[in-house]
Design the sequence.
């Protein structure tokens, strides 16, 4: 699973996800992409599950790019622990995703196969998404 090799700080504030994505909104590598249409936190496990669904449906043909990385630690406290006594330990990593962000890109497969693969991958994610494609003859 994806996680940073090292970080500056061990724990992070939860924060809120406001506005739309200011970067990562265009297709840069592939012909087809999966774009987020709502804000959410996507965990490393969800990213990996979506990636596996994508590559397995494509039968490892073509190429897949994962355009997001989980760099925010989420800490939780153990079950049945009283209130207080500080913040819990970091348990897993998430990526904060804003609407408009490209999550995955694929190339080397037909549009029909890419659409079906993205539908399977989107089922593994906690947000609504849509499939985008690069128009022929127009550079991004």
Sequence:
């Amino acid at each position: 699973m994806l996680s940073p090799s090292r970080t500056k700080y061990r724990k992070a504030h939860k924060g809120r996800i406001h506005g739309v994505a200011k970067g990562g909104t265009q297709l840069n590598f592939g012909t087809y992409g999966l774009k987020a249409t709502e804000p959410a936190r996507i965990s490393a496990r969800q990213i990996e599950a979506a990636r596996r669904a994508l590559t397995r449906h494509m039968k490892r043909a073509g190429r897949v790019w994962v355009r997001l990385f989980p760099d925010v630690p989420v800490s939780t406290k153990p079950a049945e622990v009283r209130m207080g006594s500080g913040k819990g330990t970091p348990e897993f990593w998430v990526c904060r995703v804003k609407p408009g962000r490209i999550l995955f890109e694929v190339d080397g497969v037909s549009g029909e196969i890419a659409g079906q693969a993205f539908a399977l991958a989107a089922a593994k994610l906690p947000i609504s998404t849509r499939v985008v494609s690069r128009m022929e003859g127009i550079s991004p």
Confidence is low (pLDDT under 50) at residues 136-140. The beta strands are 32-36, 40-43, 63-66, 72-76, 89-97, 102-107, 129-133.
